Amino acid sequence: MKKREEAVQYCLNAIRVQESLGLQHFGGLNNFYISLGEMLFRIGHYTEALAYYHKGVVLQAKDTVEKGYFAHALNAMGISYKNTEQYDSSLQLFYKCMEHCKKYNLEDLYYMASDNRFDPFLELKKYDSCRLIADDLYGEGVKTKDDFLIAMGCFMYGRTALRQKQFTEAYKWLNKSHELAEKSGAKRQFVRMYKDLAETCDSLNMTKQAYNFYKYYKYLQDSTDKSGLVINSNYLFAKASFESEQVEFNRLKLKRKKDIKIRNTALIGLALLSMAALWWLNKKRRKALAGRDEAEKQLALFTHNIIEKDNRIETLQAELEKIGNDKATSEKIDELSRQMILTEDDWLRFQALFNKVHPGFLNRLKGKAAGITEAEIRMASLIKIRLNTKQIASMQGISPDSVHKTRQRLRQRFATTSTSELESIIAGI
Known about the structure:
This protein is an all-alpha fold.
């Protein structure tokens, strides 16, 4: 709802009440303190922001804070110290942020903290350090053709020259920064630049330009101050409402023991219910796994019998070639016929076992190959359990040539000419 000031006050109310109740019951405390610090930072209450940031980054559980979020907190603390004119402390935080970012490979945040050192260096009159930061920004901008980075580098060069009263040099860089800000549409991010330009032009007796730049600076600054005044007023109003809420908070404090008891009872009940649910689900899972294991054994036995049948067929065929057309030959032919014919009941039993071991295979197969025939489905199922051509022929009571033809139709359905690729596709279904 973009009501940041009210959000800040609600958070302040919450943390004050929680501190009075005891922080041992407050999970994620570090993150809460840092979030509160960030909210105060965003509405310009830097001293209060620092108080909560410090709590968030020094507590024992600080390692639980996400690394990038922790880096943002260190960087914001550095900016807060800068805005409260504590420049040495500001630099210490920026360096701490850079060290953290380097350790955890947070490159963008590293360079952000590095660039933010410029203002403290400027205020501490460390102009060589200022120029080094400007060099990095300007060079990166030229390298990447980023007008905003170039404008920032020019702005830093100009501000450094202005502090050293090198007005001609300052005007050159600040005016270039102004032109690039106009070009990139980032004028509102360079409010201070227009004040510096006005001061520089005034020092160079460029009165008209100084007036125009100062007027534009006041326009941008007044709009910023107005927004800040509204934010501050809203914050103070929200803060005042805290007093009226204290009565309710005290009532809540008195209910603390009762609420904790109710909560603990509910948690125990929920835990028991969860344990019962887990036991039931685990029992159901074990039963399902046991059924699948048994199906795998039965399917393996079924497949083994098919292979044995195939071996028996080969033996019978070899014997038929040696024996003449007599009574013994007729018996062998009858046995061979019985071995080669797989009944529909046998096939249904195979399907039932197969579906337990490979649930959903047939549906997925039909989804990938629309219009697939029953013969092709049987072929795919037998390929799935890695039977060879002779074993497939034996199991279905058909010739190896028929197996080759059905397999060829399957290859066409899956747009492949390779038997090994077909097997890989079916194995993956």
